[in-house]
Amino acid sequence: MQIDFFNPRSILCFIAILQGLIFAAMLFGRFFRGKQKSDFWLGVLLLVLCSALVTPFIGFANVYDLNQWLTYFPFSIVYSYGVLVWFYTLHLTDSKRQFARKDLLFFVPTIVYLIFRFYLFSQDLEWKDWFGDNYNNILNTVIFITEFVWNLTFLFFSIRHYRKYRAWLNENYSDTEKIKFDWLRNFLYLFTAILILGALFDFTNSFIFKLSYIQFFYFEIILALTTYYLAVAGYLRSKTIELNFSETKAEEIEERKTLLPEKELEKLKEKLQNLMQNDKVYLEPNLTLNDLSRKLGVNSTVLSFAINNGFGKNFNDFINEFRIAEVKEKLKSADDSTLLNVAFDCGFNSKATFNRAFKKFTGVSPKEFQDEII
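Above: the chain's sequence. Below: its structure in token form.
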């Protein structure tokens, strides 16, 4: 037996590791140039995922078999995946968030695990064999259960945070295409699926039957592909916008009580309708709730309440419905070649947002509507 790094399985792991390391370096470079904190957390997450692939990379190359002293070395940094995803989500949706000392507490399980594994690693081979025969199964089971619960909890926090962020966007922005981070949503659900799949492999290995190194490799393939996808897509799409979102703001929106008596609400509704119909402020592509509140001379919280309770809509739908009405009028005299130009003239910033909004408020696509009126 000899070391062989050129077997197909090791090569696949190596490609994923190399890809992850390159993009992690690029993310760290962008972080130090622009201080974009989300880049830092995504870079760390990539490094942790790459470390998890080191074990199969050297394992299939016979490194473990020929170097038993490596037993118990902590190549995989467990208890960290969920926390890193959570911090990445927080900093991507809030560029002004600061990392506090108390946030270090979330890494205590990882630190304790690493200290324990380094302690095991420092022992001689005879002691390692004794420990493995007597306690290895119990240790792996405890780590599997606690790590799964820990990571799943933080993925739940991340998904909940993202949903509140999307609701907050709709209450404050008329154009959310560049700041809604669909990529982040897909990433969170994908990562959760990977976590659950990995748990199924570990559960099978701990409670049903022992899986061979080859059988575990099927999961390693998925992890390698996920690392590759995260490296490329994360670098290209995870550019932080200057936003200041926190869950506290979202909760204030959800929990707010009556801010205006009925008569005052009706007056504000009438004032708002006049502004929309006469000044057509909805034609401004980047119109926000704060912009509209300044034009009306009212507090943004009061205005949001009026739109939600007076019109039964969030701010995004309220503005886009006026835009769609304007588009419909202009489409009656526009030819097919001016369809997208009409959308842009009416306040939309992207074709995707326009098509989605048009379908939502009319039930048909813009092209179908135009065909009907010709």
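The first helix runs from residue 8 to 34.
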